Amino acid sequence: MGKGSGSGSGKGMTGNSSLVKKVLMSYLYVAIWIFLSFTVIIFNKYILDKKMYNWPYPITLTMIHMGFCSLVAFLLIRVFKLVEPIGMTKDVYMSSIIPIGALYSLSLWLSNSAYIYLSVSFIQMLKALMPVAVYSIGVVLKKESFQSQTMANMVGISVGVAIAAYGEAMFNAWGVMLQLGAVVFEATRLVLIQILLTSKGITLNPITSLYYVAPCCFIFLSIPWIIVEYPLLKATSSFKFDYLTFGTNSACAFALNLAVFLLIGKTSALTMNVAGVVKDWLLITFSWSIIRDRVTPINLLGYGLAFLGVCYYNHSKLQNLKSREAQKRTVETDEETGRLLDQKPERDSDNTYTVKKNDSQV
Questions:
Q1: What global pTM score does this model have?
Q2: Exposed e or buried b per residue across 13-36, where buried means at least 16 C-beta atoms within 10 angstroms of its C-beta
């Protein structure tokens, strides 16, 4: 008995230590993603803001990111062969990757441009509209079913963001339009990924995703760059490319893509959404305390309302996910029971035949 109880307690301790390790690793993945996302946002703000590094060329900065990511992805896949490429056909690339790349380039261009006109804290408040945009576009494209309760929650989030915008001390209409446009393009991209890729069974890890999408983004961004920023850069003859600043910034952007895959792959997309809420509050606090951006009580009231709406939305998604998993397990159990019941008459008939055969032999 002593040995049995000792063995049982040993297994229990092993199970507990494994669970603790899993929880700690999940927190580590969340911390890495928050740190890198935080770093990239502050770094981009530092480069683009006229009061800091004073390099207000968002298209060029985004193209540097995409060029760096394309190069690293190419080296990892084609030269060092550390990552296996997927079977990408010309039809899939033209019909799926190019539209997604176009939306991604527009989203990055507009979101980086907003840092020139808006504070980091206010941009994070506007980003709370992302669930609203994703759900609304999903309904329009028939990827999501319309539910009045969910739509009421989306309206609540929108009202909260509107209150935050009303209380913004450094409000800039053009900057708000840029950030809202970035939210719409990014939400459309996320929905199209589900429609054009996931529905076809195509899954891209961050390396293969950058390998196919980043060059496409670079080409799309080169069109407005030639028209808008190239003449300005050409006129600025005193500018010298800062390899340390832009190289470090690009490396952080590339690492962030890897962290996104690591976080979603090891936890879930819902965990990333929850971690994103924590990151937004940290950025607002940093923006107010370190960068000295002004955050008003009305800002906090409006964002607080939007924050509650986003939390409720994430909670509803978690409950729906649990419900679907429970239904899936129920269906699998019913199917297994049905197979067992189907097999029972066969076994009974075999047993009956054996008994009759033995009787006839006797």
A1: 0.82
A2: eeeeeeeeeeeeebeebbebbbbb
For residue 197, give the amino acid letter. L
Joined tokens for residue 294: 């002004």
What's the CA gap between 243 and 263, in Å, rounded? Answer: 30
Distances (CA, A) of 6 to 12, 101, 276: 10, 58, 44
Q: With contact defined as beta carbons under 8 Å apart, do 251 and 142 qualify? A: no
Q: How far apart are CA 261 and CA 251, in angstroms?
A: 16
Query: What is the SS3 assignment for 240-257?
Result: CCCHHHHHHHHHHHHHHH
Instruction: For residue range 81-134, list pLDDT tens digits in order.
Output: 888 888 888 898 999 999 999 999 999 999 999 999 999 999 999 999 999 999
- Report the alpha-carbon distance of residue 287 to residue 265 in Å, rounded: 30
Residue type, 215: P
